[in-house]
Write a structure and sequence with these properties.
The complex is a heterotrimer of chains A (542), B (324) and C (639).
Chain A (H helix, E strand, L loop, with lengths): L5 H4 L1 H12 L5 E3 L12 E3 L6 H14 L5 H7 E2 L1 H8 L4 H8 L3 H13 L4 E4 L1 H4 L4 H15 L8 E4 L6 H6 L6 E2 L3 E2 L4 H11 L11 H10 L4 E5 L3 H4 L3 H9 L3 E6 L4 H4 L3 E4 L9 E4 L4 E5 L12 H11 L9 H11 L8 H7 L2 E2 L27 E2 L18 E6 L24 E3 L1 H6 L7 E5 L4 E8 L7 E5 L13 E4 L6 E2 L3 E10 L5 E5 L6 H7 L1
Parallel strand pairs in A: 1-2, 3-14, 4-5, 8-9, 9-10, 15-19, 16-18
Antiparallel strand pairs in A: 6-7, 11-12, 12-13, 15-22, 16-19, 17-18, 17-22, 20-21, 22-23
Chain B lengths: L11 E6 L2 E6 L4 H7 L23 E4 L6 E2 L10 E3 L3 H17 L7 H9 L49 E3 L9 H6 L10 E3 L6 E3 L16 H5 L5 E3 H8 L8 E7 L8 E7 L2 E6 L13 H5 L22
Parallel strand pairs in B: 1-5
Antiparallel strand pairs in B: 1-2, 3-4, 3-5, 6-9, 7-8, 10-11, 11-12
Chain C lengths: L11 H11 L18 E3 L2 H7 L3 H12 L4 H11 L3 H8 L13 E6 L2 H7 L5 H7 L9 E6 L11 E5 L5 E5 L7 H7 L3 E2 L11 H6 L31 H6 L4 H21 L11 H9 L6 E7 L8 H8 L1 H15 L1 E8 L4 H16 L15 E6 L9 H8 L23 E5 H13 L1 H5 L9 E8 L5 E6 L4 H7 L9 E6 L5 E3 L10 H6 L8 E6 L4 H15 L5 H18 L7 H18 L3 H5 L2 H8 L4 H6 L1
Parallel strand pairs in C: 2-3, 7-8, 7-10, 8-9, 11-15
Antiparallel strand pairs in C: 2-4, 4-5, 5-6, 11-12, 13-14, 13-15
Helix pairs in contact in C: 1-3, 1-4, 11-12, 11-14, 11-17, 13-14, 13-15, 14-15, 14-17, 21-22, 22-23
The chains are: A alpha/beta (542), B alpha+beta (324), C alpha/beta (639).
């Protein structure tokens, strides 16, 4: 488990993982924090934030040097091994220890256990992807699976855990810049495009669209002047939120369709109240394991709130396209006619089978429990799986004397994202947003538990209560994004994004902690608690 | 998440159930054999998603030749086994188990089948005398192993005690606890692996407890509610349901249950949302759903309030009042 | 695992008590100081957790002895050390009477008020101490007392266990016990220092010198020793000296076992037709053979010395006076069953026996008779003591396994049986002390010779714990098949020539025998056909001064107190049985006496038929036998 705190972020998945542990599976957890997930591990590797590729490449090098690479699988099913092997050569165990700070022998043991396991999985979440090297991080893990053959077989594989109930479905439905529904390429797959054009009766532009981060850049340049936001709260969820809000405010026209008047909706020209997808509407959702399941209406939405489908259809009608009153099932059946991998998933079958994992090409197809099984076919069918050599790059927001502490972010068990939904139930576990520091830093800075401090990054600052947290080591701090109305953590984060995926580097921010001290009755002064040598400067600034 | 390729052909075992010869898979329990043969066996501590703990003993059956009765829920079938599920010995034990529970525990929120069994086996809890005065708050929790003060026997000791209410989401009404261990199993190794509760004490003073009986907010509890979901007697109950029942507003005729997918993370947990008057009153997950096996986390279990949120619950006072 | 433990910090004393068993904490992740390496690596996991879970009970003992109770903070620290959830550890600790989860006085005196003491010394064994010191639990000058179930000194008719915590803490037993002199007794006793799991010091010489010949315990020892087999060495061989034991023929049985090899020993046991003395009379050869031939590894062997059946004291006498015999016998069992690790599960109420046994194990290890090359045979066998903490139920073999494993001492449903899934889920042999000592006898005289002792179906001798109203109470050894009358004659008959009312055979879980049944043969087959049991060998004699109703009430209280609470028939049934007897005793039946009689029978039926283990299954047997034999006056006079 790498860069994932599934114990809190995916609790029911973690139940399954613990069943495996109970049956004797070994668990390694790679995470800068010794999270509640890591506390279950046989071995926790507490790497420095952002050093994942150095670790992965060193594991690969060790596997290769120990003669544990799956040569037969590599030969039959992969391409590019030689250049990959050459690329990991500089990543010795000693080098990895220097970069990650995890002792070499621990890395070596992980390498050997992973390579020698009968079946092995690598599970990850945002600890891998919320970096400026997000895609490279993922590729580094994929390379390990190819190196050992731990892919394409029951019980082995690469498991990205989806953070939201239908984020997989969103991608499946083409809500990514370069794909039509069913991952059909909008640029290169002309026949697919033609089928959609025929069905929809419109011309589909072939160039790929923009991802979220590009859209904000486009707002910056004025290339985007209008925006239609459905069920997203970028004013809270994007990195460097001050910039985000400024850009949203600068739009000519902003339409927000949501179940609440979110921070983003507050900035909107028009707000379209929507029903809750999971509880007030019919449809489907696709989970992490590619399982399409039915979502059903349990409640009547409040007066005035309407189903997304109804809103969009009404909007289309105003724009001159009368779609009638399509039901969710009609829409789904249209999708099945256009997306081959969904072809066999009628509502009836979804009901009967309790969901189906794509691809499911026809009504006799049970769906697929795991992907890439073709790599094990003899002879292999389809193209080989390629190794992609990747190089370690340190996080962009560098630590220095001014900003000596690494802030990383994550979720807590009882909360979800920006708290739009979870902020509204009475969680007995709830506690206010807090800057967590290692007990050592907490003590060194002379802080009191619950004391309000100023947390500063190169982009901005927020005030938050502070608490010691034993799962953190000196130099590492933690906050969540759950309570942006109290503490807008994303004021601090860096919006530099991975050029391939568009994900910002939420996980690695350089901060300093400043004490708000009572300045002899003359109002609140500020003193740097990090480095008392700077206290005068800071106070002068204040 | 079904194990592919795990369906090896199983050897069959032949045995006799109430004189009828039946064949079932090797490794099946007597309970499973009875279910396949359409024989109804009462159970209280058994749940298909948990390993059998065979403590309630209401499922006992007679295996011809065995010295004692055996629990159907956990005893595996053996070739040529002769099982009697309704012999006089069986009926006596079931009657007495129900009498012993009925005379010591409030079974009024237990499943309707329990009342039916009490009738079927002729159990008469009143034979053991009128109930003793309820315990005071904390009294049973401080009982120590060993000597107790014997009563004069004219009243029957019970587990009656005040309801424990220490968090917003569920209450613990241990007057209804039959000590079936399901909550402990669901909190522990069988599902949640949090181990916030365990059986403490001994004998009649055995009880479900946190360490030193600390309140749930001071315990390891993560409010997944998986204990509540498996409780067969209403000893653990969601606060919303408990309060509606207490005020007499709980009305199953005005309720409907809808199965949907949890709106939070991407694991795909199915929810069974019970709604009364367009408000969510209970959230469970189907036992036969292979993602959850009936289990949920705190968000899926309790985190749906946002649907009916009113402005006053808003963090930061942003005015989105969906209820209006 | 992701523990949540209290933020209260354990005191240095508490941490030291835990560390005494576990060693000092080596990582900040498990209660120690945070080190540089902790910042980037932590080890844990299921395997590590399970590997030391069995140290929970020893750690709890250590806290109890050194601190006097187990506080929330101490529990938090030990949970962090052992990676156990606090609720689970609390659940375990709260199941034992000798562990306290609240502060208690520095000295606690547990005063026996059980049936053998009632039978021998009158109706209220705690009367004197109550009169002198006030009610139980009340602390005066760092001292309090509380009533206790049978302490296994029944031949004296009164006994107390002194539990002292803190500096110089330990336990000691006093028998006979003069309740009027509680303070003097409690302070004059030098408690046996607690023994950790580390290698114990050999028994101090002073203790050896103290060894009195326990003729009072074994009346036969001062008369005709020739009839003694299992008790042969009692009183004549120094229990603290392995040399003395070897000089008396000790370790010849092991030598013979090694030369016969496991199969040879099994055939001797088979020829001897040795049946287990624990109550179930299961053939020992079959049990050992099943373990020996089970392909699952590793195997374990356990000696059950958790003698707690009221009226039973034979294990205590054997372990206090002849501890090497058990060590030798368990070693043989280990060799034969292929177990490399063995345990003696010993009652927490027997400090002297523990000291002697610990000394015997240490000496055996020092002489190469335990360890990685037993008697230069290449066999590996390690033996350790696990101490109970005051729970009768832990004597049930599967509850005993759970107790060793650091779980609540709750019996497991059987099957699976221990030979398939026992201790730590592995094939395990388990026998009680007396059975194991019989193995020595089988090997020294040969299986055929052993089979010639006793009756055709019950071979060998049997130990009987004779207590109550007899002239010479104590431990007796007679060939199986001896009649009860002969045994009572050996013990000098009813004390003071009074009239015999009844004999309780087999203990609280046994049954009553009337004077006209004294010619019953004490053999497995004869007692079975008479509908009774030899049980643990209790022969408790009651004359016409003993209030049988009171004895029955005490038995009912005992089972209610000792029920683990797991299954409904026993958990509630023992309560209802007790309530019913209380009602009868105060002549306030619910409805008619006939209705009460029917209710008592129903309670007996459900407990016997449907309880998980032997405790519930036998919790009504003595009471039902008393009723059947007309010994309960309140039922007789009205109906």
């Amino acid at each position: 488990m790498w860069g994932s705190n599934a114990r809190e972020a995916h609790p029911i998945f973690f139940h399954h993982l613990l069943k495996g542990v109970r049956r004797g599976a070994k668990l390694y957890v790679v995470d800068p924090r010794r999270t509640t997930s890591a506390q279950w591990a046989d071995t926790w590797l507490g790497i420095d934030v952002g050093s994942d590729i150095a670790l992965a490449n060193a594991i690969a090098r060790e596997i290769i040097h120990a003669g544990l690479a799956n040569r037969e699988f590599i030969g039959r099913a992969t391409a590019g091994f030689a250049s990959y092997a050459a690329s990991v050569e500089p990543y010795t165990l000693a080098e990895a220890e220097r970069v990650t700070r995890v002792p070499a022998e621990v890395i070596k043991k992980l390498a050997h256990d992973y390579a020698l396991a009968g079946r092995a999985q690598i599970c990850w979440t945002l600890g891998i992807t919320e970096h400026h090297t997000a895609t490279d991080n993922v590729l580094a893990l994929c390379n390990l699976a190819l190196l050992t053959g731990h892919v394409g077989r029951y019980g082995s594989g690469l498991v990205p855990l989806r953070g939201q109930n239908n984020v997989q479905g969103g991608g499946d439905m083409g809500a990514i810049p370069n794909k039509l529904p069913g991952f059909q390429d909008v640029e290169s797959d002309e026949s697919a495009r033609a089928r959609f054009e025929k069905s929809w009766g419109v011309k589909i532009p072939s160039p790929a669209g923009w991802h979220l981060s590009q859209m904000f850049d486009a707002m910056e340049t004025g290339a985007i002047s209008s925006l239609y936001v459905i069920g997203e709260n970028p004013a809270r969820s994007e990195a460097d939120s001050e910039r985000t809000v400024r850009l949203l405010e600068g739009l000519d026209h902003l339409v927000v369709q949501d179940i609440f008047l979110t921070r983003t909706a507050e900035l909107a020209t028009v707000v379209l109240p929507a029903s809750v997808g999971a509880l007030e509407a019919e449809g489907t959702a696709t989970s992490s394991e590619r399982r399409v399941q039915r979502v059903r209406k349990a409640l009547e939405p409040p007066a005035g709130a309407r189903d997304d489908l109804e809103i969009i259809s009404a909007l289309a009608k105003r724009l001159g396209h009368d779609w009638g009153n399509p039901t969710a099932e009609m829409l789904w059946d249209e999708l099945r006619s256009l997306s081959p991998m969904h072809g066999g998933m009628s509502y009836r079958r979804l009901e009967e089978l309790g969901g189906i994992q794509w691809p499911c090409y026809d009504e006799n197809d049970p769906g697929q429990q795991f992907l890439h099984g073709r790599l094990w076919e003899e002879p292999r069918s389809g193209p080989p799986a390629s190794f992609f050599p990747v190089e370690f790059e340190a996080p962009l927001d560098e630590l220095d004397e001014q900003f000596p502490i690494r802030l990383t972010t994550g979720r807590r068990l009882d909360s979800f994202n920006t708290g739009v939904q979870t902020g509204r139930y009475r969680s007995p576990l709830r506690r206010p947003e807090t800057l967590e520091l290692s007990p050592e830093d907490f003590e060194r800075l002379g802080l009191g538990e619950g004391e309000i401090v100023r947390v500063c990054s190169r982009r901005g600052s927020v005030e938050a209560p502070v608490a010691p947290e034993a799962t953190l080591r000196p130099g590492l701090a933690f906050m969540t994004l759950h309570f942006p109305d109290e503490v807008d953590t994303n004021v601090l984060t860096l919006d530099t994004w991975d050029t391939k995926s568009g994900t910002a580097e939420f996980k690695a921010t350089a901060i300093r902690v400043e004490r708000l001290v009572d300045n002899g009755g003359n109002g609140a002064g500020r003193a740097s608690a990090n480095d008392r040598a700077h206290a005068n400067d800071v106070e002068r600034v204040g | 998440m079904t194990a592919a390729g795990s369906t090896w052909p199983r050897r069959q075992v032949e045995l006799s159930l109430d004189g009828e010869t039946v064949r079932v898979n090797e490794g099946a329990t007597i309970l499973e054999a009875c279910a396949a043969a359409g024989i109804d066996i009462p159970t209280l501590c058994y749940l298909e998603t948990l390993a059998p703990v065979n403590v309630c003993r209401v499922c006992v059956v007679e295996v011809v030749g065995a010295r004692t009765l055996v629990p159907a829920c956990s005893r595996k079938v053996e070739p040529a086994m002769e099982v009697l599920t309704d012999s006089e010995r069986v009926r006596t034990s079931r009657r007495m188990v129900l009498e012993l529970l009925g005379s010591s525990v409030d079974l009024s929120y237990a499943a309707p089948e329990v009342t039916e069994w009490i009738d079927r086996y002729g159990a008469d809890p009143s034979r053991h005398g009128p109930p003793m005065r309820p315990s005071l708050a904390g009294e049973r929790d401080s009982a120590r192993a060993g000597h107790h003060h014997p009563s004069d026997g004219t009243t029957a000791a019970t587990v009656a005690q005040p309801v424990k209410r220490d968090n917003a989401q569920y209450v613990r009404d241990y007057s209804r606890c039959i000590l079936c261990y399901k909550c402990v199993e669901a909190c522990g190794a069988e599902a949640q692996n949090t181990f916030a509760i365990a059986v403490a004490g001994r004998g009649f003073e055995a009880r479900i407890s946190t360490e030193f009986d600390v309140g749930l907010p001071d315990s390891a509890c993560v409010y997944c509610g998986n204990c509540v979901a498996v409780c067969p007697t209403g000893a653990l109950m969601f606060t919303a349901e408990h309060d509606l029942r207490a005020s007499g507003e709980w009305d199953e005729s005005r309720q409907h249950v809808t199965r949907t997918v949890c709106p939070y993370c991407g694991v795909g947990c199915n929810l069974e949302v019970r709604v009364q008057d367009n408000r969510v009153v209970r959230v469970t997950s189907p036992l036969d759903h292979d993602v959850t096996s009936g289990n949920l986390c705190v968000k899926g279990r309790f985190g749906l309030d946002f649907v009916s949120a009113t402005g006053e619950d808003e963090p930061g006072g942003i005015g989105a009042n969906r209820a209006e | 695992m992701d523990l949540r433990v209290t933020t209260e910090r354990a005191t240095d004393e508490e941490r030291a008590a835990v560390d005494a068993v576990l060693g000092a904490a080596t990582t900040g992740w498990a209660g120690g100081a945070r080190s540089e390496i902790d910042r980037h690596v932590a080890y844990g996991g299921r395997a590590a957790r399970e590997a030391h879970r069995d140290l929970l009970l020893p750690v709890l003992h250590s806290l109890q002895e050194k601190v006097g109770w187990i506080s929330k903070a101490a529990l938090g620290y030990l949970c962090a050390r052992l990676d156990i959830a606090p609720a689970e550890a609390f659940g375990v600790a709260s199941a034992y009477e000798l562990l306290s989860l609240e502060p208690m006085s520095q000295v606690v005196v547990h005063v026996c008020d059980d049936i053998a003491c009632i039978a021998r010394t009158g109706s209220d064994p705690c009367g004197a101490v109550r009169a002198a010191h006030g009610p139980p639990g009340e602390e005066q000058g760092g001292l309090s007392w509380k009533p206790s179930p049978c302490l296994g000194h029944c031949e004296h008719g009164s006994a107390a266990l002194v539990q002292r915590s803190g500096e110089g803490g330990g336990r000691a037993t006093v028998a006979p016990f003069d309740g009027a002199a509680l303070e003097r007794v409690a302070t004059s006793v030098a408690p046996v220092p607690e023994l950790g799991t580390s290698a114990p010091a050999p028994a101090p010489a002073s203790r050896a010198a103290e060894m009195a010949l326990p003729v009072a315990l074994v009346p036969q020892a001062s008369s005709d020793r020739s009839s003694l087999r299992l008790l042969r060495r009692v009183g004549v061989v120094d229990p603290t000296s392995i040399d003395a034991y070897r000089a008396a023929g000790g370790y010849e049985a092991l030598r013979r076992a090694l030369s016969l090899g496991p199969e040879g020993v099994l055939s001797e046991l088979k020829a001897a037709n040795l049946l287990g003395r624990g109550g179930a009379a299961f053939p020992t050869a079959a049990k050992w053979s099943a373990v020996a031939h089970n392909p699952v590894r590793p195997h374990f062997f356990v000696a059950n010395a958790d003698e707690s059946e009221p009226g039973t004291f034979k294990d205590r006498v054997l372990l206090e006076t002849d501890p090497f015999a058990l060590v030798e016998a368990v070693t043989i069992a280990g060799v034969v069953t292929g177990a490399e690790r063995g345990f003696v599960y010993l009652r927490g109420e027997y400090p002297l026996a523990e000291e002697r046994l610990e000394g015997a194990i240490a000496q055996a290890r020092a002489h190469g008779l335990l360890g990685d090359d037993v008697m230069s045979s290449g066999h590996v066998f390690e033996l350790e003591i696990r101490r109970g903490a005051g729970a009768y139920i832990a004597g049930e073999e599967t509850a005993l396994f759970n107790s060793i494993e650091g779980l609540r001492p709750e019996p497991r449903n059987k099957p699976p049986f221990p030979v398939d899934r026992g201790l730590f889920g592995k094939p395990t042999g388990i026998n009680n002390v007396e059975t194991l000592l019989c193995v020595l006898e089988v090997l020294s005289i040969g299986g055929a010779e052993f089979a010639s002792i006793g009756t055709a179906s019950s071979s060998g001798t049997r130990l009987f714990c004779v207590s109550g109203c007899v002239s010479s109470p104590g431990l007796y050894e007679v060939p199986l098949g001896t009649t009860l009358r002969e045994l009572l004659d050996l013990a000098g008959g009813v004390r003071g020539g009074r009239e015999l009312r009844s004999v309780l055979l087999g203990g609280a879980a046994g049954s009553f025998v009337l004077p006209e049944q004294l010619d019953i043969e004490l053999s497995f087959e004869a007692v079975r056909s008479a509908g009774t049991t030899l049980g643990s060998g209790v022969v408790m004699v009651m004359d016409d001064t003993v209030d049988i109703a009171q004895i029955l009430q005490r038995i009912a209280q005992f089972f209610r107190d000792e029920s683990c609470g797991q299954c409904v028939p026993c958990r509630v049934g023992t309560v209802r049985q007790e309530e019913l007897l209380e009602r009868l005793s105060s002549r306030r039946p619910l409805g008619s006496v006939q209705a009460e009689r029917a209710l008592l029978a129903d309670l007996g039926t459900v407990m016997r038929d449907s309880s998980i283990c032997g405790l519930g299954q036998t919790a009504s047997s003595a009471i039902e036998s008393a009723v059947a034999k007309g010994l309960l006056a309140s039922l007789e006079e009205v109906s």
